[in-house]
Amino acid sequence: MKKLVSAGEILVEPGPLLGPYPSGAPAIFIGQAAALGQPAGLIGAVGDDDFGRLNIERLRTLGADVSAIAVHKGHATGTAFVTYRADASRHFVFNIRNSAAGLIETNAAATKLLAGADHVHVMGSSLFSDRAIAVALSAIETVKAKGGTVSFDPNIRREIMQASGMREALDQVLAQAEIFLPSGEELFLFSSARDEKGAVEELLARGLSCIVLKKGAAGAVYHDRHGAVASSGFAVDEVDPTGAGDCFGAAFVSFWLGGAAPAEALLIANACGALAVTRKGPMEGIFPLEAVEAFIATGKNTP
Ligand code: ADP
């Protein structure tokens, strides 16, 4: 089986009554991929503290390769706070750059993980500093040099994406990606077209293999040069939307790597995205493949 790697922030979020919750977009992504049986590992850094141990243990339990998560003494594990606004938008407060997460580097363990990797997934939010950008770009270079592939989720978090080279890095990652997974308005950050059809055409013409537009409760639409495949979402009670896009992306990329047809990859991805929103906490809605398949067998598709 192909091996999937991501690099970036590993964080904790506070919980309302219980918690803290393991978090960080690439950590959620790799956790969900591993839970589906996809060989997957993460390059990142945590502090030598209980928050860091919580993250590593959770990822290990989900089946992820945690060998390239560095543990730093003297630096705390990164943190994220999410505020849910009445208009359904979210505001994030992060402590990443000055936390252990900011010490991410392509060390010997990361180099070893990448040597066995076939695919790299990059989250835009993981390009939070010059140092983090260097790690992401070098991971892409390593994997591409041996014929591997790249997926990219812009996951725009303006609160942390302030590195001077960030915009250029986003464009560089997109230019090397096979799979592009934007949600909402993110599509238009990378295209001069102002309508969805025009933007998709422009981006496919630039060399992407496929674009998967995430559409919240409505599901997702896949585009490649042969046409489009739409897949409606599953009807669930949304408790917490954080992590849905990461779980969706992990499932889509894992099945794409396994050679699944777009409709099948979308079905599993929509199910993982829907399950993710049914639990408070970004990684609490990650389920193994058997549970996702059982959900699909009994779940109700939204009209
Ligand atoms: P992101 O989290 O990246 O902004 P979306 O909000 O579009 O992306 O969510 C990603 C995917 O998760 C959707 O394409 C869908 O499959 C699933 N999803 C998100 N919200 C819901 C919901 N309320 N009900 C069912 N599925 C959902």
From TrEMBL:
Record domain Carbohydrate kinase PfkB: where: 33-284
User: Has UniProt tagged this entry with the keyword Acetylation?
Assistant: no
Which keywords does UniProt give here?
ATP-binding, Kinase, Nucleotide-binding, Transferase
In Pfam terms, one family for this protein is: PfkB
**Where on the tree of life does the source sit, at the highest rank?**
Bacteria
Looking up InterPro entries in the UniProt record yields: Carboh/pur_kinase_PfkB_CS, PfkB_Carbo_kinase, PfkB_dom, Ribokinase-like
Family to which the UniProt record says this protein belongs? Belongs to the carbohydrate kinase PfkB family.
Q: What is this protein called?
A: Fructokinase
Organism (species): Mesorhizobium escarrei
